[in-house]
Amino acid sequence: MSLVRREMAAQNGHNHNHINGNGNGSPNQPLSPTSEGNYYTQIAPRNGPFAEDDMSRDYNPPPASFSMPKQNGPIDRTTNGLADFFSSEVFQIVLHNPTTAHRLLKFSQARMCGENMEFLEKVDRYNALLDELATIMTDIHFSFTATEAPKQIGIPTNLLRKINADIKTSTTTTLPSMEHIFSNAQENVEGILRSAVYPRFVKYQMTNSASRALATDRSKYQGLGDCFCLTDPAKADNPIVYASDGFVAVTGYSRTEVVPRNCRFLQGNYTDRSATQRLKASIDAKEETVELLLNYKKSGEPFWNLLYVAPLFDANGKLAFYIGGQVNCSTTIRSNTDVLRILSHSDDPEDDKEASQSLREHKTTKRSFFGFGRSKEVTPKMPASSKRVQYLVITYDSFTIRFYSLGIADVLGITNSSNNDFVGNNVFKFLSNHTATLPREFKSKVKEALRQGQAISASINLFTLRSLARHGDDKFYTHWTPCKDENGVVKYVVVTLSSTLYE
Question: Which pTM does this prediction carry?
Answer without folding.
Answer: 0.71
